[in-house]
Amino acid sequence: MITFHVKSDFKCVYLLNGSFVENPNAVKYSSAEPLYVTALPLSAHLMPYTVKILGKKVLENSELVSVFSVSDERAIVYLRPRYNYVYNRKKIATLNEHDFVESFFYSVKKGNLIKAREAMTLSLMEKVNDENLSAFFADYHFCLKDNFFGEKNDKNEKKNVYLLIDSENTAHSFQFVLESGKIHDIVEG
User: Fold this and answer.
1) pLDDT tens digit string along 99-149?
2) Can you spell out the DSSP letters for 168-187?
3) Per-residue exposure over 42-68, b if at least 16 CB sit within 10 Å of its own CB, e if not
4) Which of 18, 121, 154, 176 sits at 20 to 30 Å (Cα–Cα) from 101?
């Protein structure tokens, strides 16, 4: 059995093997049976679609989904939006807006180290040069806030834990320690 956590950056309801599920967090399916996930977006400019997964492997519509392995028994199914063809010059608002830490990660990955450094405390900036900052994230291609696992604080909120995804689509947990609204430290585990 594999416990799947389904995540999308757009509002939708889901069908898992034909059954409606509004919040598919921690649903268990046999790794020997296919899992069909249908995303039914709640926005008119997005199209519904279905993906087929067997174990942790995507069999259909791989351009719309990634399966990130957290452990042998856990995986995150990350769904991307499927857009309607819109013949309009107006730009449609981006659905997957990144939070503070994700923006920091993607700034580093794009080589915009000046922007990335703006998100760091002065003491962290003094400890880490640009080369080390780029090298630290070199093995990862995707950043996702951990709303699935981990401890919660006294307000029942998740700590600043993010999953960084490597080239094998394996998730690695990192806590981003914030101080005065800036990244002060990054701790693996």
Assistant:
1) 889 999 999 999 999 999 999 999 999 999 999 999 999 999 999 888 877
2) T-BEEEEEEEEETTEEEEEE
3) eeeebeebebebebbebeebeebbbbb
4) 154
The length of the chain in residues reads: 189
Alpha-carbon gap, residue 119 to 161, rounded angstroms: 16
Mean residue pLDDT of the chain comes to: 86
**C-alpha closest to that of 176 among 136, 139, 141:** 136
Helix or strand (DSSP H, E) at 57: strand 57-60
Torsion of CA 148, 153, 157, 163, to 10 degrees: -40
Contact present, 137 and 109 (Cβ < 8 Å): yes
Secondary structure of residue 133 in the 3-state scheme: helix
User: Which residue is associated with the tokens 């951990």?
Assistant: 146
Segment 87-104 shows an average pLDDT of: 62
